[in-house]
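Table 4 source record.
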Amino acid sequence: MKTLLILRHAKSSWKHNDLTDHDRPLKKRGEQTATLMGELIRKHDLTPQRIISSTARRALKTAELVAEACHYEEQIIATRALYGADPDDFVEALRTLDDADERVMIVGHNPDLEVLLESLTGAMESLPTAALAQVTLPIDSWKELEENTPGKLAHLWVPSTL
């Protein structure tokens, strides 16, 4: 059994019109929420062994703040493949992981993450900024993961309800 944590990036800023979408930073509120979600991960003993993030500035900063708050000590894997990704892109990234990684977190964007969550669990859930879904997967090896692996949505945390 593997656990996949799916985290949407925290609230980003639209203040700088000269920046590309990929380069948009987090708002101050987004930074606070990312830290809150990291603390929640630590409190629930869900600190991942591996974090994979989109290279978009807002996603990577979210991953860094969450990692610090949940006491994640490994390097974050940043990949452009998770920016504008479909479920197959996520699966491909996850299939490269070491099987010693029982719990993995991916940090990305919508609607990509909502589509992935539905693909793996059948659950059609909204993932507002900084929402965190915990999915259990009936696999022993990440290489077994498929786009339609029948996972279970174990929990969904939305910052506005915490």
